[in-house]
Structures are given as structure tokens and as C-alpha cells.
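Q: Here's a chain of 216 amino acids. Please give me its 3D structure as C-alpha cells.
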Amino acid sequence: VDLCFDSPYPALVISQEAGAVPILRRLKYGVDQYHSVFIAKAGSEFDELADLSGNMVAFEESFSTSGYMLPLTYLIEQGMNPVLKGSLETAVAADEVGYVFSTADNTTIQWIISGKVPVGVIDNVTFSRLPEATQAELQILAETENVPRQLVLVRAGMADELTATLKTALLTMDQNEAGQNALALFLTSKFDEFPEGAQQALKRMEELYALVQNNE
């Protein structure tokens, strides 16, 4: 495989395991960056992040950026103690924040509204696209930092000249009809450079990746 497109957490796993190199951002559905939001049922006793201690939180899945890496590392950096639990019924100690995987954002929302779990995590783009009536049933407790929506990676050892050619092709796809048609099929508005520079962007993402690995 010469090219790979994925969100930051699985992209970092691929990078660490196979030496793949992130070179650009992919604006999937036109979204350049996103973040996670911790949500609870509106009017519940949960008003701030400190209320999570001793309670259960629903994440999406173990390879998700917005549904695992970002909320997990956010809790760790806030000095909290996230611990994976086997089910919603598993006990959570007072000094822990238990988490389980719902496997889907819609399930997370349903669990919160039905009272199966007091707090859950989805990404901000998904939250913004919920019907107004559903948003009114929820409240946001905390939001994580932004990360790129998706990364473009090239295989380890790819020649610099070929990498440069691929970057140019991807960066200019939105400037001609053939490229625009291909992007539309790929549900992508365009590819672009990291605004803060690739080195700085990857440094922070690698810090978050390391926090996840140290917690497992």
C-alpha cells in the first residue's frame, strides 16, 4: 500500500507500526478539523468535568480519534483516572472515570437520553448536525482540542521525488474538473497542508498517542 487516508489515531497507529509518513490533511466532507464533546442529559446533575469521577462515560470504539483518543487523553491531562469497564453494569470506584464502548455515536446519544449512561462522547460535527430537538435534550460538559479530520500517509521508504509528485497532485485536485469529480466520489472537498506545519501538528498528535499507549 502506497497511500492511506484515515483519522489521526488509526493513522498514528499505522505510522508507528509500519513507518508510514503523514504528509497532508484530507478535508473529508469539507471538514478540516474536529474535536470531541462530552455530553450529558440536559437538566441532569452533571454540570462539569469534575462530576465524572465515580461515574461511567460512553466512548465510541477503541480505534476512534474523536470517540477514544481525544476524550481519553483529555481526561488524563485533566488529572482524572479513566478505566475501561466490561459493561455498563460494572462498578466504578470513586477515584475512577469508567468508560465503555457503544460502537456508534447514535447509540451513545440513545444511552444518554434513556439514562443507561450519564455522560457520553461524540464529535462536534456530529453534535452540530443533530436535530434541534435532540440537541435541546443534551448539554455539553467539556470539549477537547481540535485535530485534523483526516491525514494522508505515504508508505515508509517512498522516494522523495514520488512523494513530492503525489503531494502536488493531491493539492491541486480541486483546481480542475477531473480532480473535482474524483474528490466528489471520495467525499472530499480538497487536500491541504498542515496550517501550523507538519512537524508541529504531528508532535502534538504523537504526544496524545503516547498518552493512550501508556494508559493501556
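Q: Can you summarize the key feature?
A: Residues 33 and 149 are 4 Å apart (CA to CA).
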